[in-house]
Amino acid sequence: MSILINDELETIDSTEMQILGDFECKLNDAETLRCFIKADDYWIVFAIGSVAQAVGHLAFERTNIELVNQKLGEVLAGKLFNEELDFIAFESGKDEIQISASTVFPSNSVTPRETITVLNLREMELDGLEFSTGLSLSPKSAETLSKELEKLAKSAKD
Amino acid sequence: MPPKVNQQKVYQQQPVHQHPPVKKTPKPAPRPLPKVSAEKPAAATRRADLSSYGTQQKDRIERLYGAGAAAVSTARDVRLANATNKANYAYARTYKSEMATLGGTTPNAPKNLIDVAHRSENAYRTELGKSGFTPSDVRGTSVVKAADFMRSQAKAPGDFTTPSPQAIKQRLATGEKPQYFVRVMDKNYLSDPKSSFSGSKPTAWMATPQELAGAKLDGFEAMKRVGFSDQYINSLAAKGKKPSDFVLVVTEARGMKGQQVPTWDNITNTAKNHPDFAGFKRQANNPAFWNKVQNVDLKAHQGQMQSLGIKDARTYAKTLPKAEQGPFLARDMMNSKLGVNEFFTGDGRTARTDAKNGGYGVREFLVNNDPVASTQRNTFIELGETGKTGLTATSKAPTISNNPLRLGSEMKTGALGGAVVSAATSLPQVFDQARNGDYAGAAKTLAVNAGTGAGVGAVSAAGERIVGRSIENGLARSSSSLFAGAEGGLARQVGGRIGGAGVIGGIVSGGFSAYDQVGAYKRGEVTGSQAIGTVVGETAVGVGAGMAGAAAGAAIGSIIPGAGTLVGGAIGFVVGVGAGYIADKALRYGGVNKMIAAGVTATIDKGRELGGKVIQAGKQFVGQQIKTAKAIYNSATSAVKSARQFVGQQVNNVKRNVTNATRAAVAYVSNVKKQVTQRFNSAVTATKQFVGQQVKTAKAIYNSATSAVKSARQFVGQQVGNVKRTVSNATRAAVSFVSQAKNRVTQTVNNAVNTVRSNVSNAVSSAKRTVSNAVSNVGNAISGGLKSVFGW
Q1: What does the pLDDT read at residue B609?
Q2: Which of A3, A48, A109 minimises the CB distance to B312?
């Protein structure tokens, strides 16, 4: 058994990155939060919180914005449900993106909650946290994310 | 042919049974027996004798009751099994047909899965009711029975009840597997035929009905028991949710896949296989990490987050020491993705959210989160609001009955059947053997027949168990309880011999005589050898006569019309006792019992006289009796085994036949299905072609019709133009003609007027002239007349 906790990780610090925009989103606990889109020349980072202490949840290469949005669009269109898949995953560059959708009854609730989760399984430490680098959003927030990605992809082309 | 035993004439005149001629068997060599005198009892003695005899026979009859009850019970079992099969089929059939129309527009279509299940439940009850059964009669699992159990428990008076912490611990320790699962569900999520127990993948949390029964179908109390926090329940209430908005789904455990007790290990494995936990893949094989996850105090962290005003777990994690960040994030994700909330204990039960009952909630289970409808064995119970608040812990949590054999009430009716079976199958031979002095054979025959008769008659494990238990009990009574209270080595030895001798009787009669003789020996009324001999003689007589009488009596009781089963049984018992007494006395007056007793006694006594050989003789004798007893027992057991084997073979044959028939049916159905499919496909193809052609033809017709319509329109347009033109010309011509005609008429009229005027004028003139002439003429005439008259 190997404990990889001490292996070399890519370190990403979003605190000094340029803020490209922000949008409202709902995470697991269904409370509305603010998601900031930050970027440098290589990374695009989605961070939750106030401007000052926004903590990165998801990061991937800027060159993958269009591809991530394309796959996210497929999930939002019901690909996982229609094809009975648990998730879709793809690699591009060093990124290992996984997008899943699930309905859960958190805290033994009787009310199901839909979530769409975008993970980057690339080994990294984002804003000092090395675990679970991903965004788990409500379907509506995931649609908003998709629109933001579309804008980013368009602005990159212009 | 008269029997070989000595009998008084009065008994020959009142035979209990008619028997075919009996083959003679050689008499054993005569022994030097003490002289026995046949004494006629007085009436009082006879009554006492009869009473005592009746007591003994009552016990014997009770043994027959056992076999009879088994037979009756088996008949009921068979009937119940058939009814249950039909009911299960009705449930499945209704479920399937209702599912097919769920959410459809057909009249009376079910609105949701609750309607589907309830209609299936009604079909199930109806089918059972046709055979006089209810769901509670059904053996084995039945969701309807479980639902009825919950409903009946809800009606129990008093506060809520819950299994005590000790009772829950006990169940956890024994690993008791539930037969049913229940889960609280929102009615709103049951209208979709594909609704799962708990949203989408991967698992669903389940509880057991026994542990939720004490919630008395109160919606919010039920939620508390399965780990819904007060805060969450209050939020539901604040949103206007009522307990009646929820139902309990009840499903059979055997239909649920992936059952596991939600221990930390199982939860951890589930998490490792969940896609959203992929962010922890680097820790998958790090047990130290997952141990830390288990030890995260989620409730404390949630409180801390609230106090800090942080709503995002990842942001909160940054406030923790580095080593705690990962375990906290994993534990938080278990909560959000798997429902492992702060009340999860990891030992197979949830903590009670209001901390009552020592914080012990119900046991919980994880199952695969399949669609509710896929189990096909489920139903729903409406929840409500009871207004109760008190809670009583109990160590006697109710259970859903498995309905063991109900021999208590069936003993009476079953006795008749058992007695008839025994009498019909064994008595003639028993009597014949007894008459010919073959008492051991008679005992064996009766024992074997009783066992076999019951075994074959019962045709069930229940019957075999009862017969076997009866024999075992007889042996146990003979060999163990008889020794109780015997003091001293000699007493135990003699008691043992008596008990050994009583084994024969113990098999069928329970060793009554042995009991009596042990008592008599202990009271000093008889010697040991006398007691042994008496037991043998009594037993042989008891076997041959007593059982016959009892069985015959019961048989008589059973056929008395109009007496009713119980009354018939009672009368049968009385007659049986009387008949048995008569038969018994017939043998006793012949001295058979005493001859045997005396022979045995003499043998033992003589052995003693021969110098301490009594013990040896006794041992040999007892040993022989025990061997015989064992042989009888073995024979009975063999008979039961044979019966069981026979039944087993028959069952196997039936199974093979059923299997073959099933295969044939399956093959046939498969062929038919293929043919139907082929025909259907052909029909579909032909229909498609036909429809295609028809569509083409229709299109062509349509096109033609369209062209025709266009032509018609053009033609009509032209015609209309022509008509317009014609009408216009005609109108003009008419107007011209009318104008000309008018002119002509005017002219003609004017001409006519002129002519008339002229004519009138002429006529007037002429008339004037005529009148004038006439006047002239008249004047002339008058003048001429006057002249002529007057001669002027």
Answers
A1: 47
A2: A48
Structure tokens at B519: 């008592």
* Residues B199, A103: C-beta atoms closer than 8 Å: yes
- Residue A145 half-sphere exposure toward CB, CA atoms < 13 A: 33
Element (H, E) at B756: helix B614-790
The ipTM of this complex is: 0.85
Length of chain B: 792
8 Å CB contact between B163 and B211? yes
CA distance B394 to B694: 76
Contact B336 A28 (CB under 8 A): yes
Instruction: Give dist(CA B114, CA B120) in Å, integer.
Output: 10
Predicted confidence at residue B149, as pLDDT, reads 93
pLDDT at A56 over 90: yes
Using CB atoms, pick whichever of A48, A87, A104 lies closest to residue B314.
Answer: A48
Paired strand residues for B360 = B351
The answer to whether the beta carbons of residues B246 and B218 sit under 8 Å apart is: no
- Within 260-289 of B, beta carbons closer than 8 Å to A belong to 275-276, 278-283, 285-286, 288-289
Q: How far is CA B66 from CA B18, B220, B443, B579, in A?
A: 27, 49, 19, 21
Which residue of A49, A102, A110 is in closest CB contact with B185?
A: A110
Partner A, chain B 234-263, Cβ-Cβ below 8 Å:
236, 246
Give me the residue from B276, B315, B336 closest to A100, CB to CB: B276
Nearest CA in chain B to A122: B279
B-contacting residues in A 61-80 (Cβ below 8 Å): none
Q: Quote the tokens at residue B362.
A: 């119900």
Residues B499/B664, Cβ–Cβ less than 8 Å: no
Q: Which two tokens stand for residue B569?
A: 């049984």
Tell if the CB–CB gap between B278 and A127 is shorter than 8 Å: no
Q: Which residues on adjacent β-strands are paired with residue A158?
A: none
Report the residue from A98, A106, A133 with minimal CB separation from B335.
Answer: A106
Spatial separation of the C-alpha atoms in residues B697 and B692, rounded to whole Å = 8
Under 8 Å between Cβ of B188 and B245: yes
CB of A82 within 8 Å of a chain B CB? The answer is no
Which two structure tokens, joined as six digits, stand for A32? 């509305």
Q: Which amino acid is at B270?
A: T
Structure tokens at B719: 């015609």
Strands B160-163 and B391-394: parallel
Q: Measured between alpha carbons, how far is B351 from B340 in angstroms, rounded to an integer?
A: 12
Residues 6+ away with beta carbon under 8 Å from A85: A79
What are the φ/ψ torsions at residue B350 (nearest 5 degrees)?
-95, 155
> Which residues between 44 and 63 in chain A have a beta carbon less than 8 angstroms from any beta carbon of chain B?
48-49, 53, 55, 57
Looking at residue B276, what DSSP letter applies?
A: G
Residues B539 and B527: their CA atoms lie apart, in Å, by 18
DSSP for B244-300 reads: GGEEEEEEEGGG-SS-B--BHHHHHHHHHTSGGGGGGGGGTT-HHHHHHHHT--HHH
CB within 8 Å of B646: residues ≥ 6 apart: B456
Q: How many beta-carbon contacts under 8 Å exist across A and B? A: 130
Residue from B100, B115, B251, B93 nearest B190 by CA: B115
- Write out chain B residues lying below 8 Å of A119, CB-based: 276, 278-279
Q: Which tokens belong to B182? A: 């229940």
Tell me the pTM: 0.52
- How high is the mean pLDDT in each 10-residue block of chain B (792 residues)? 37 39 49 46 62 57 49 66 90 92 89 94 95 88 92 92 90 89 90 79 84 92 85 87 93 88 92 88 90 94 91 89 93 87 89 84 88 84 91 84 52 43 48 59 54 34 34 36 36 35 31 48 58 49 40 37 36 41 45 46 44 40 49 51 56 58 61 68 72 76 75 77 77 79 79 77 76 74 64 51
Q: How is residue B228 written in tokens?
A: 């819904």
Question: What confidence score (pLDDT) does residue B741 get?
Answer: 76
